[in-house]
Design a protein that fits this description.
heterodimer, A: mainly alpha, 14 helices, B: Rossmann fold, 12 strands
Chain lengths: 326, 258
Amino acid sequence: MSQRGGRSSMPLGLLALAAFIALLLALSVGSASLSIAQLWAVAQGQGELLASTLVWELRLPRALSAFAVGGLLAVAGALMQVLLRNPLADPYVLGLSGGASIGALAAMLAGLGSLLVSSAAFAGALFSTLLVFGLAHGRGGWTPARLLLTGVVVASGWGAVITLMLAMSPAERLPGMLYWLMGDLSYARAPWPPLFLLLAVSLVLMPLGRSLNVLARGAPQAAALGVNVRPLEWGIYILASLLTAAAVTTAGSIGFVGLVVPHMLRLLLGNDQRLILPACALAGGTLLVLADTLARTMIAPEQLPVGVITALLGVPTFLFLLHRSR
Amino acid sequence: MSILSTQQLVVDVPNRPGGTPLNLAIQPGQVWGVLGPNGAGKTTLLHTLAGLRAPRSGSVHLNKTPLVSLRRRQIAQILGIVFQERMDSFPATVLETALIGRHPFLSAWQRESSADYALAEQALARLDIASLNERLVSTLSGGERQRVALATVLTQAPAIWLVDEPTNHLDLRHQSAVMALMAEQAASGRSVVMCLHDLNLAARWCDQILLLYPNGEARWGPRSELLVTDVLEPLYNQRLAVAEIDGAPVFVPVHQRA
């Protein structure tokens, strides 16, 4: 079970391969299915016009957005779990996604531009983090029950505020409602900013992995072994909020990816953050690409919001973890 | 030349106003036993000496440098602490747990080398748990976990050991083995400060004693002056009988009927 030296390259290689296959699947499956040969032709610029438009303008941006959002949410979840020393932490369950949604929604209703919408989502996520952690901390430490209750209550509060904002907004905006409450990739057209953020954050986290391993054993133990706990914890707060905000502005609030993916990876690979964090980026992306492909084909021609699929996976996982922790 | 010293140190125990300012000078090779009833502030003192908790007043010095002006990493290269309470929220193997003792000595990009693994394995072998290397810590008994915690600090190999209740959860044989390990550390020029409840272990293994009273008063000095019934009975508010075995005093509480 122990990982000596560079043994982490094999699992990461396999996960990268799985990600590639999932992306191919997402490109080929749909209203008109495309064979590998057709995809190859499109990639070389020789395909039919219809296939070409389908791949370059619809399926590829959507699949890459799904990959980026899944990776961001899984890494955000893994970071919050280390921060709280609790495998149940997840940006959706703890209300970060809700806070980000409200920030983004308020900025959109005010008619602000996309950069300000993203900033407002970040501010909303950060505010929600501070609110939950501040309230749950109270006197003494974070007990899992207290933290979860605080997070779930704050999240349902955000849900009510989102519904209120939507009810007061013009009727033509209502179809977007599910988007902010449940998460949906149908509107995702710009995959590059979240993909770039995912890559940048994965690089930033690389040298911090061993410190995070020590931090996972509690703040006093980490400080005793030379970790500067306060700056590291603040850095993770801010990073987790930023990742959540980027995911939410791309695809609304998709739940449970940050819970399911780190949990599965820990079962398979142990809990070395130097391996788990990049593995989360790859596996979270893969999971959401597959979930979104399922969401748009399962009841075709109708499309499900992908949040439905992740909730179907995530709720049993969450209940299992909660049951086991007692 | 003391390696760890305090100047007019008053630890910050909640809801306790005063306290004797501590002027301790802990030398290489010494084994200090910190004794006192529950709630006297033994753990708080240990955490303050490690720089994990700010004192109410006064200061702690490591090799003449104030602790507050050192970075955590510099402190961790010299000083190790075994906590009484530990958290394992995530699964980790025994070997991984011992290996984190090398954290203060590795740079951010460095991975543990085979030399680091060898140190951790030696430490586990020294604590008689080499056979548990691949086991998850969460599956171990209390005494085994206690020895994993000691092995982590042995892997860290600090010049100063701060140990909160080293013999917690340990059976008699391992109590003795762990105290012998502490003595061995001191004999090789390191310093050991440990909180103890067992007076007889203190009498057998410590050469310096620090007594902490519930009201914040403190006394310290050589074992021979302080480990006597006249001093210990008021400390614990408990009558004691004393015998002598192998030249060391053995204290037994005497039950008083009301």
